[in-house]
Amino acid sequence: MEPSRGAKRATLAQVAELAGVSVMTASYTYNRPNRVSDRTRAKVLAAATRLGYPGPDPSARSLRRGSTRTLGVVMGEHLSYAFDDPEAVSFLAGIADVCADHGYGMTIAPITGAADDVSRITDAAVDGFVVWTTSDDDPVLAAVRATKRPAVVHGGPAVDGMGLVSIDNRAAARAVGAVAFAGAARPAIVSFPLSRDRTTSITKGAELPDVLFPVTRERLEGYREAAEAAGTAWHDVTVAVCARNDAAEAERVATALLTSAEPPDAIAAMSDQQASGVVQAAHAAGRAVPGDVAVTGWDDAAVAAPLGLTTVAQSLRDQGAACARAILGGREPDSRPAPWSLTQRTSTRRP
Predict the structure, then answer these.
(1) What is the DSSP string of 301-340?
(2) pTM of the model
(3) Which residues of 285-322 are buried (b: 16+ CB within 10 A; e: fewer)?
(4) Distance from chain centroid for Cα 123
(5) Where along the chain do its domains lie?
(6) Which among 238, 289, 291, 295 has a CA at the least distance from the CA of 266?
(7) What is the C-alpha separation between 292 and 107, in angstroms, rounded?
(8) Is residue 340 classed exposed, middle or buried when 0-12, 13-18 and 19+ CB atoms within 10 A define those classes?
(9) Which numeric CATH code is attached to 169-313?
(10) 181: closest CA among 261, 218, 258, 236?
């Protein structure tokens, strides 16, 4: 028997009556199947099929037990970024590993600057939040905090009452910048966005506006220290800001740099995806790497080794897992920065 269109949803009590069992027995069929016999279970499921009963309402079940058994991941990017960007994929895989171990699901909440971003957070049926790196002024941070659910921010900013999982981006940038800028006369940086406006620009270090993404800000500070230690003033360092962590956009801005009147002879990129675009632009411009232009990346992603990229190695998967463990394990994340290391390959000059 098929339920008619517009008919009321069949209830568990009706299923129990048709199957000739108690409501408790019918409930056990769905929630504690080991408590009923195979014959009884078959009767209940057959009755449910006849009545068109789909099973207990998940939201009602969540209310009863006080938990959705779902972890929310707030991504300050379009949803496709979670599947297109290799390091975002790795980060989410780390969260998924821990969720699977705890019997939890995972819900991705993309945040794009739309008017409903905050309501998307407050309406999320999740037990806690992992917030992908965002800006100091992102209103979703206050929205997450207002839910009073456990929350951890990856990368930054640091927020009172919320955990933080990150590497020491400033120290890592200083280390890789020292290698990138060694012996360079015209160093440049291909940067992540500075703010949620995500404006692409090419400027000098000293002319940068306020940098509201902590990860970008800390890496720029480390690169500045490396450039100055190598003998180049910050106002002489070119910074090409990209709107996205995207190889194609990095290739376009690197092409503009390399075909300018004073092309850089060293470019430090904030990701291996960006660095791959820089290498492509260098090849297209007939510039040898590292002879004409040294190039560094960040993450030690799969693309790094084939390109011979000198890069900062970190595990986004481990960091994602650390975020999830802090929430599902009910404890603060380790206060120490996550580990990183410098991997030197052939894209930079020998000291």
Answers:
(1) -TTHHHHT-BEEE--HHHHHHHHHHHHHTTSPPPSSPPP-
(2) 0.82
(3) eebebbeebbbbbbbbbebbeebbbbbbbbbbbbbbbb
(4) 21
(5) 12-56, 67-165, 169-313
(6) 295
(7) 46
(8) buried
(9) 3.40.50.2300
(10) 236
Q: What is the block-wise mean pLDDT of the chain (351 residues), using blocks of 10 residues?
A: 55 93 89 87 92 72 64 86 88 96 91 81 90 94 92 95 96 98 97 95 96 98 98 98 95 98 97 98 98 98 97 97 92 87 96 72
CA angle 129, 135, 154 (to 5 degrees): 40
Q: How many CB atoms lie within 10 A of CB 345?
A: 16
At a CB cut-off of 8 Å and minimum separation 6, what does 117 contact?
111, 139, 140, 143
Give the closest residue to 232 by CA, choosing from 181, 190, 269. Answer: 181
Residue reference for tokens 């820089």: 278
Residue 302 and residue 317: Cα distance in Å, rounded? 13
CA distance 56 to 65: 13
Domain 12-56 in CATH 1.10.260: yes
How many angstroms from the chain centroid is the CA of residue 71? 14
pLDDT of residue 6: 47
The reply to whether 67-165 and 169-313 are identical in fold is: yes
| Amino acid identity at 5 | R
Phi-psi category of 68—alpha, beta or left, where left has phi over 0 and alpha has psi -120 to 50?
A: alpha
Provide CATH code, domain 67-165. Answer: 3.40.50.2300
Tell me the one-letter amino acid at 300.
Answer: D
The sheet that has 266-269: what strands, in order across it?
Answer: 201-204, 238-241, 187-191, 266-269, 294-296
Q: Is 295 helix (H, G, I), strand (E, B) or coil?
A: strand
CB 139 within 8 A of CB 118: yes
Q: Are 265 and 282 in contact (CB under 8 A)?
A: no
For residue 1, the model assigns a pLDDT of: 42
Is the C-alpha dihedral spanning 96, 101, 105, 106 positive or negative?
A: negative
Q: How many residues does the chain have?
A: 351
Looking at residue 66, its pLDDT comes to 55
Phi–psi pair at 54, nearest 5 degrees: -85, -5
